Amino acid sequence: MYGLKRAVFAIGLMLLSGCEPQMVDDPIPLTTFTDVVINLSLPEYSALRVDGGLKLFNNIGVRGVIVYRVNATTFHAYERNCSYHPNEAGSTVDIHTSNLFFQDFSCGSTFNLTEGQPTGGPAWRPLRQYHTDVTVNVLTITSDVIN
Question: Which domains does the chain have, with CATH numbers?
Answer without folding.
Answer: 28-145 (2.102.10.10)
